[in-house]
Amino acid sequence: DVKVTQSSRYLVKRTGEKVFLECVQDMDHENMFWYRQDPGLGLRLIYFSYDVKMKEKGDIPEGYSVSREKKERFSLILESASTNQTSMYLCASSLGHGGTEAFFGQGTRLTVV
Amino acid sequence: GEDVEQSLFLSVREGDSSVINCTYTDSSSTYLYWYKQEPGAGLQLLTYIFSNMDMKQDQRLTVLLNKKDKHLSLRIADTQTGDSAIYFCAENESFQKLVFGTGTRLLVSP
Question: What average pLDDT does the structure give for chain A?
Answer without folding.
Answer: 93
